[in-house]
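Troubleshooting log. The previous run stalled partway through. Resubmitting the same two chains, unchanged.
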Amino acid sequence: AQSVTQPDIHITVSEGASLELRCNYSYGATPYLFWYVQSPGQGLQLLLKYFSGDTLVQGIKGFEAEFKRSQSSFNLRKPSVHWSDAAEYFCAVAYNQGGKLIFGQGTELSVKP
Amino acid sequence: DTGVSQDPRHKITKRGQNVTFRCDPISEHNRLYWYRQTLGQGPEFLTYFQNEAQLEKSRLLSDRFSAERPKGSFSTLEIQRTEQGDSAMYLCASSLREVPGNEQFFGPGTRLTVL
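Second attempt completed without errors. Output:
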């Protein structure tokens, strides 16, 4: 079955430190890849997406992600975390244009002052 | 453009009652999706529409669940004879089929509590 794994349920980083959130997917073909962020009481907001081309994609709020086909991974990074980045982050994949999204279980990010 | 809206935002009901949720997508979007999210989990796909046609339903969508998008605009999700296991956040998303990568825009969700 198609699945998305986010190995880290909860991560705590200090403000100003770098961040990497991991995401792996299971499937042979290259899917469409997404990172969403969800703050308490807020809807899911798209940070970035990959579907073709350059494997390093830039998103909003200073986030970037790199698609590595050999590792079936799409890790999210940010060089310097701000306190406002504290939220739940979801990796998601879609296997065809317009299809359903399959989400990972999420990584909760806490930011220490 | 006000984004995807959902109504109500919160619903508390007693077991066995029927509930109906509404989703208004972004106006020009031809695709509409329903997902369910339980505490500590990522959203799970329920069903989606292209215009008024329901193109895919998850096995999660038991026969107590029904979704419609009668005119290809807003959609309703009805749950009959609610059970405590139906307690969750119900998310709606919309997208434009013609956009590469098919980015889905999510609404704020309807939180259902079944007592």
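Takeaways: Chain A has a mean pLDDT of 92. The first strand of chain A starts at residue 3 and ends at 5.
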